[in-house]
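Could you join me in thinking about how sequence relates to backbone shape in a protein? We need material for that, and I hope you will provide a protein of your own picking. Once you have written the record down, we can walk along the chain together:

…
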Amino acid sequence: MTERPMLDPDLADAARHLLLTCRISSAQDPLRYRAVLRGRRELTDFFRAELGWGLHIHDVSGVVRLHKRRDDVPGDRGPRLQRRTGRGDLAPAQVLVLAALVCEQLWRRPRISLRELLQSVAQVCAAEAGTGRLPAFRIVAAEGVGKRQAQAAREDIVDAIKLLQADGEISVDADLDRAVTDENAEVFITADRDSLANKFASLSPTLLALGNRPIDQHVAALTAVSLPDTEPDAVVQRQASVEGRRLTALRRVVDDPAADPGDDPNPVGYLATSTGRERALNVASSLGLVTTVRRDWWEVVDPTGTASDADFPQGRKTERQGALALLSHLPYHDAIEISADEILTLFDEVRQDMPRWAAGYAERLPALVRAAATELVTVGLLRQTGEDRWQILPGVHLWRIRVRQGQAGPEGRHRATSGDDNPATGGQENQP
């Protein structure tokens, strides 16, 4: 690369953190917040010029927000349910809708009890449920509503409140989990209007008239920077322009685990040109990302783990081991797609050699097949094309997997005399 770095190395950590969370708070992360303040102009210019994203620093509330806009929004990411242990699942649509309704109520009443909030949201949903625009939300067991259904509704709104609490938008004065089962629990929720106003970055849904637009145009409308840019012709023109192609390609490089240079409206993709390749590599390097480039594929990793919450290939859980076993086979598969039955056959062969591996899945190997394939989809090595079929992506050729079978240790008080059949990743290489 011939160009100088676009970003001061002292700002790279904060920039990577913003790529993952889109938010830095002075209360929760004072070191990164101070780093952003010191380099506010450089960071703002970098995100705007290279990625077309706005960085906003709200001095009063002490919050930095990166507003990421993408026409090709990834479908496997988003807010995750807050759980006390482990990584929560992606929040379902109902929880996200309820989070928006909670924000609406808190904008009107910045301090409200959970009981009042439940009643207000239930009334809004009841008024709109007949139109299909809002889900049914019934919090009281009554005629036609069972106790389990009412409790599930309470769990959903508690999950929505936890999402807002984790983002620092609101504060709660008591245990929310107890409120799920105890209808008489006294919980008060407090919000700051400035924080709520800063949370949303799209144009007004009322001005966009989303109700009159086809669903497949909603993303383009919500990510547009101005009202004229939301028109279908303007969207197509923007995406096909050199600038639009550049932004799409660079956003994929910094925001996705992999990028396909051929996925471009132009016969010659932006990343396939010398100018585009040089600029993308410079942007990635400025952020501290490591890029492995093939003619047909880009693999991007963050050695620090700051820009992504994916920890592949680390970990010893059975699903991760299954994903690595599958990955070791994919470069030699004789087709561009692989089916669940073919993966199942592969795992059966592994278990014949190591009978004690995946013992917990012995009676339900199809579940392990789906879990292992999902791991590889997440890191951009497979793409799901059907219910039980996956396309093998070129990135699989960048990996070399070595599997080590556990050996028996020396006999002693805490050592077994038989070998351990569980496979462990003896090492993996990411090779160009």
The domain at 318-430 is CATH 1.10.10.10 (Arc Repressor Mutant, subunit A). Residues 147-166 form the longest helix (20 residues). The chain is about 40% helix and 15% strand. The radius of gyration is 25 Å.
